[in-house]
Amino acid sequence: MNAKDCVWQGLLGYWQNLFIHQNMLMLGYAAWHGYISQGRGLLVCRVAIAHPHTVDWSVETVPFSMQFVALAAVPEFLRSLAAEIQSDLLDEVAIARLKEAIAQHDPTQSIVLLVENNGTVDINLLQHLAISPADCHRQVEQRWEEFAPHLTAFHPMD
């Protein structure tokens, strides 16, 4: 018998896919909104959970904030984040590679996402999405009353 993703991923400590799945429409909305207003960039989510393995992802929602960082501002943002979380993982080589990935990905079909929680950073290129960022944007706008409370923390960053 195979364990469901929500069981084994949570137990092994890799909860980011569950977070992404739970919040895909909002992430797609924010990525597309950022892209159409600022061009290519990085979607940053700051999650606030002390113990991700204790979350029941099928029923609980997790508080988080989002910001879109335009491509030109990514290096400065990442250096600031690295200093804030006291990490040397976001070195100049990693920053250059991430800038290249942002410059080359197709924002109509993919999202470059950074998830930060308690000083841990996870960067993903979300591609082969079941729903495009533009479609996420349309759906959220059509159902604005449902999503508006969750999007108050979203703000673009130049």
Explain the overall architecture:
By secondary structure, the chain is α/β, with parallel strands linked by helices. The protein is 46% helix and 20% strand. The chain is built from seven helices and five strands. It has helices at residues 5-12, 16-22, 24-38, 74-85, 92-104, 133-142, 144-151, and strands at residues 41-47, 64-70, 111-117, 120-126, 155-157. The chain has a five-stranded mixed β-sheet with strand order 4-3-1-2-5, sandwiched between helices. A hairpin with a 2-residue loop joins β3 (111-117) and β4. α3 (24-38) crosses α6 and α4 crosses α5. Mean pLDDT is 85; it is low at 1-12.
Annotate the secondary structure layout.
Blueprint: H1 5-12, H2 16-22, H3 24-38, E1 41-47, E2 64-70, H4 74-85, H5 92-104, E3 111-117, E4 120-126, H6 133-142, H7 144-151, E5 155-157
Parallel strand pairs: 1-3, 2-5
Antiparallel strand pairs: 1-2, 3-4
Helix pairs in contact: 3-6, 4-5
